[in-house]
Write a structure and sequence with these properties.
This protein is α/β, with parallel strands linked by helices. The protein has 19 helices and 14 strands.
Length: 454
């Protein structure tokens, strides 16, 4: 069967998509992990035959509904797990109204959930679709488990000293101007499903500027009062890294790095500092110490992440806690706390079976002969590379009737792939999973990976 896995933010999703692809390839499926635009080129040109299109969300925007309708009408089946997850959402009921609709679920053949809370809320809001909603858990959470500890290679640019990881998720340092964020929410219909969101976003960004200032002051204080360890600031994929580099310029033991998955950074850090960041939940599952920095009272804080770890309110207290965790790590005295029940409600972690395996089983159940027609991968490879060569000649795009696809735009969320790196990741996954069959991995373009047996 043909399986096409849409990847939007590589640093967030690529490793979990590779896990899915390797497990599906082991079962005999041919899997293409790719960006939406490159998949669209294959679908619209007829180069890619029908299969399962696994996408990162079912947000009920006009454009997405139209795009998915065309995909289904061409013989494809759609499945999805929402990569925004909703695990930090204050109101999960609002999240499922914003991110799903009867129409988008109706267009899909299967919807996978992160855990109990989003499963129950989806069933409550869209009861006629219960049969296609599955509590599988997320493949991203699979990779947080100790089982995959050896998968994570040292991230690029990792300092030689032990380091405190500071994970950021600010709106005020976003790559997009704030008005464009408002425009995006408006175009995708969020203000219709959530009338209070417009006001909330203004309050959130105003608090974010204050939080940004407090973080800068705290990071500089840690830097000036410590020589034993380094500090790694990890901006969210949507943040502008140059903003952070500007604010922290001149501090030699502070590194601002965006490369690689946050999971790799969590693995090698001696502790994680955050405010309202999903990384704190990952750190809790992974058994890493957490410092939640709350220097002022917030009205727009993410409540669940900010209940985790040690709560500190001043930069002086922050330094004491960071030093404590550094010394515990140095003396090999770190202890893992139990995962709170609230996280267990949000995340389904099955110790006996990976979430990725559960998803592959559902895919296998959707198989039929119409989804298994072989692709001419050489033809698809040539098409993508021809279009790459032709980027300067937009008229060629129009000739191919592909002018509405943003193939010519730079994709900051999904930087060009490194073939050696991707093959290394696939080999590590095979070894950890104990897969003996030969799994072939081929880079077809800057953002397309073919994984299959052979």
């Amino acid at each position: 069967m043909n399986i096409y896995i849409h990847t939007e933010v590589a640093a967030r999703e690529l490793d979990s998509k590779l896990l899915l692809a390797v497990l599906a390839a082991e079962k005999g499926h041919q899997v293409l992990v790719s960006s939406r635009d490159e998949l669209a080129i294959g679908f619209k040109s007829g180069t890619l035959n029908p299969g399962i299109y696994h996408t990162k969300s079912l947000t009920p925007s006009v454009n997405k509904i139209k795009r998915h309708e065309e995909i289904v009408n061409n013989g494809f089946k759609i499945t999805s797990i929402d990569e925004e997850s909703g695990i930090t959402a204050a109101k999960i009921d609002q999240f499922v109204k914003d991110r799903y609709s009867d129409k988008t679920i109706d267009q899909s053949s299967a919807v996978f959930t992160w855990g109990k809370s989003d499963l129950e809320e989806l069933n409550k809001n869209y009861p006629k679709h219960k049969s296609k909603i599955f509590k599988t858990g997320s493949p991203r959470v699979d990779l947080w488990k100790p089982f995959f500890f050896n998968y994570w290679a040292k991230p690029k640019g990792m300092p030689s000293k032990p380091f405190l990881l500071i994970s950021s998720n600010l709106v005020c340092t976003n790559n997009k101007p704030f008005y464009e964020i408002i425009k995006f929410y408006n175009e995708w219909g969020y203000f219709k499903t959530n009338p209070n969101l417009f006001e909330f976003l203004f309050h959130e960004i105003s608090e974010d500027y204050k939080k940004l200032y407090e973080f800068i002051v705290a990071i500089r204080y840690l830097s000036e009062n410590n020589t034993d360890y380094d500090i790694v600031v990890r901006p969210h994929p949507s943040e502008n890294i140059e903003a952070w580099k500007t604010f922290l310029k001149g501090y030699a033991n502070v590194y601002v790095i965006k490369e690689d998955s946050i999971t790799a950074w969590v693995k090698y850090a001696f502790a994680i500092m955050h405010n309202g960041c999903t990384t704190s939940i990952e750190a809790k599952v992974s058994g890493k110490p957490i410092i939640t920095y709350l220097p002022f009272e917030m009205k727009c804080a993410h409540s669940l992440p900010n209940t985790l770890g040690c709560l500190v309110k001043t930069k002086e207290e922050l330094l004491v806690k960071a030093n404590k965790f550094f010394n515990l790590k140095k003396n090999n005295q770190q202890k893992n706390d139990q995962i709170p029940e609230l996280i267990n409600e949000k995340l389904y972690v099955d110790e006996n079976e990976l979430a990725a395996k559960k998803i592959v089983k559902v895919w296998h159940s959707l198989n039929d002969k119409n989804l298994s027609k072989s692709n001419n991968w050489v033809k698809f490879y040539l098409l993508l590379n021809f279009l790459k060569f032709a980027k300067k000649f937009v008229k060629i795009f129009k000739i191919l009737s592909l002018n509405k696809i943003n193939f010519f735009k730079d994709n900051q969320k999904y930087p060009p792939l490194n073939g050696v790196d991707i093959n290394s990741r696939v080999i590590r996954l095979k070894d950890i999973l104990g897969i003996k069959e030969n799994i072939n991995c081929k880079i077809l373009s800057e953002r397309s990976i073919l994984i299959k047996k052979g």
